[in-house]
Amino acid sequence: METRGLTIRFGGHVAVNNVSCRFSPGTLTAIVGPNGAGKTTYFNLVSGQLRASAGEVLVEGEDVTNLAPSARAHRGLGRAFQLTNLFPQLTALENVRLAVQSRADAGWSLFKVWNSRRDLIEKAEAILERVRLADKRHVAPKTLSHGDQRKLEVALLIAMEPKVFMFDEPTAGMSVDEVPTVLELIHDIKQRGDATVLLVEHKMDVVRSLADRIVVLHNGTLVADGDPATVIASPVVQEAYLGVEVRP
Ligand SMILES: Nc1ncnc2c1ncn2[C@@H]1O[C@H](COP(=O)(O)OP(=O)(O)OP(=O)(O)O)[C@@H](O)[C@H]1O
């Protein structure tokens, strides 16, 4: 996935400013920066929730800039959303079943398709197992703990088999004991295949433990890009992101 000169203006304010960046399969890139730096807006531009004022988004060389979010999702851009795409009246397993069916172009009927496609059932169950939710398969999403809801979001994303996984602060609001599992799942996604993983994250310990590369945004502009140790040590990050005053 690649963005070229990606820019959005809100009135006179440039929230994302001419960001050109290429992300490779098998790599987890953390996008960091202070509050209001433009990280979530950049994600919105990539996934299509916002339309760019200028620039392009490319997936495997194809320009998707003018496509709606659903069409971008079909091209392989997968973004984890907080339960907005869940069916609350269905169980965790049924939700994953529907996502698996949708990916297999097997339609949206839960019963008709389900009885004839044992392979899809097994796939949904394997995904729930992979995200450590097998024992909660028959539970309604809203009764799950916050951490388990996040795991279910990851399950739905895995079911869609995207080329690019996008996580925006995946551990936000989670209790301390729930964090490691979700981080493990994200690590596992990167390890398993050749997925491109993008992570917006404030917590530097999380970034350090997961990222192969760090991109820093500041006032909408890309100000640093490289391997974690180099980027974290760079004066621009010490000053702009960590708030350390750097003197010559
Ligand atoms: N729809 C909008 N209309 C006007 N301004 C917006 C809109 N969306 C974002 N902005 C502005 O764009 C800038 C970037 O916001 P954004 O939420 O992308 O930052 P962020 O880096 O994700 O911050 P945080 O870490 O606090 O989530 C901010 O100044 C914000 O106020």
From TrEMBL:
PROSITE patterns: ABC_TRANSPORTER_1, ABC_TRANSPORTER_2
Classification via CDD domains: ABC_Mj1267_LivG_branched
Keywords: ATP-binding, Nucleotide-binding, Transport
Domain of life the protein comes from: Bacteria
Occurrences of domain ABC transporter (ranges): 1-244
Gene Ontology molecular function terms on file: ATP binding
InterPro entries reported in the protein's UniProt record: AAA+_ATPase, ABC_AA/LPS_Transport, ABC_transporter-like_ATP-bd, ABC_transporter-like_CS, BCA_ABC_TP_C, P-loop_NTPase
Coiled coil segments of this chain: none
Similarity remark: Belongs to the ABC transporter superfamily.
Full protein name: ABC transporter ATP-binding protein
